[in-house]
Amino acid sequence: MKPPIVVLDGHALNPGDLSWQPLAALGELTVHPRTAPADILARAAGAPYLLTNKTPLLADTLAQLPQARYIGVLATGVNVVDLAAARRGGISVTNVPAYSSASVAQHVFAMLLELVSRAAAHDQAVHQGRWVASPDFSFTVAPITELADKIMGIVGYGAIGRRVAAIAQALGMRVVAAVVPGSPAQAAAESRDVARWPLDDLLAQADVVSLHCPLTDQTRHLINAPRLAFMKPTAYLINTGRGPLVDEPALAAALRENRLAGAGLDVLSAEPPPADNPLLSAPRCLITPHVAWASVEARRRLLAAAADNLRAFLAGQPINVVN
After folding, report:
1. Annotated catalytic residue within 28, 146, 257, 271
2. Beta strands 236-239 and 262-265, pairing class
């Protein structure tokens, strides 16, 4: 009999355009599109192999799942699992690193190019009839900014940060990285001869700041009111990392008071956000619903890697174990 494999929240990874066959080949697969907190225990009970994206598997839950032996996180970040509790319970936890680097870097520039070129606003004006009625062959609805020769500041120079740097350089931008001395990211920056500045210096001089660092106690609200005050009023902030890297009321205030040219955010502190999140009504604030990772190609890689992780665990040669 094939062992039970339960996916607790498969909809984000596979809304129907991919095949679950790589995982189904390894056991008796049950896929739940979403799992409410009240349903976690009932759905996970009896299954030795669990996969989750955002459904939390915390200590009190794991204590009630004695048959669990493996948790595959369908993402790179693993904060949805209590790693220490899993270790105590003899549960291996794996993640999928680096599957979305190209997708996220592309999304950084999708947002940035919209902010500086305003293609959607110009398209809307055309479709409203403004070009048809214009006395001129050309008109603008907002200033258009050229990225060439501007400074791209990257906070967190890992796999995604390096991809962002390469695209920025292709556009003629000067790239600088804010990294912690002695960290692996520092070594990566040095190996590629990217300029390295202290964070506050980077914020003060960069024309674009793109966040790619992990969320830790040290980086929570890394971009706060004092640091936003360092930034130029012509600068743009892009966040495809984690929402809590940014103090959201402080960013909203900076945008409302014209102390920042614009922001592009793919992540917020709560997802989905409450209706009163101040950024939802802030001017020049482009927000996408945490989709930078979600290209078809990236999701296909994620699903294949998740199956590889479980296959390796079943073979007694686990990979990508994070606890």
Report:
1. 271
2. parallel
Going by C-beta distance under 8 Å and a sequence separation of 6 or more, which residues neighbour residue 279? 248, 251, 252, 263, 265, 268, 273, 285, 287
Catalytically annotated residue among 107, 163, 212, 242: 242
Residue 255 phi, psi dihedral angles, 5° rounding: -70, -45
Residues in contact with 36: Cβ distance below 8 Å, sequence separation at least 6, in sequence order: none
- Whole-number Å distance between alpha carbons of 3 and 8: 16
Q: Position of tokens 């809590």?
A: 244
Sequential pLDDT tens for the chain (323 residues): 788 999 999 999 999 999 999 999 999 999 999 999 999 999 999 999 999 999 999 999 999 999 999 999 999 989 899 999 999 999 999 999 999 999 999 999 999 999 999 999 999 999 999 999 999 999 999 999 999 999 999 999 999 999 999 999 999 999 999 975 445 555 555 555 689 999 999 999 999 999 999 888 999 999 999 999 999 999 999 999 999 999 999 999 999 999 999 999 999 999 999 999 999 999 999 999 999 999 999 999 999 999 999 999 999 999 999 99
Give the distance, in angstroms, between the CA of residue 265 and the centroid of all CA atoms in the same chain: 10
Which segments of 105-158 are extended strands (E)? 151-155
Domains and CATH numbers, the chain: 4-99+296-314 (3.40.50.720), 101-287 (3.40.50.720)
Q: Which two tokens stand for residue 309?
A: 């992780």
242 is annotated as an active-site residue? yes
How does DSSP classify residue 3? P
271 assigned to active site? yes
Determine the Cα–Cα distance for residues 170 and 79; give it in Å rounded to an integer: 34
Q: Is 257 considered catalytic here?
A: no
Structure tokens at 313: 């665990």
User: How far is residue 120's CA from residue 229's CA, in Å, rounded to a whole number?
Assistant: 29
Catalytic residue among 107, 227, 290, 301: 290
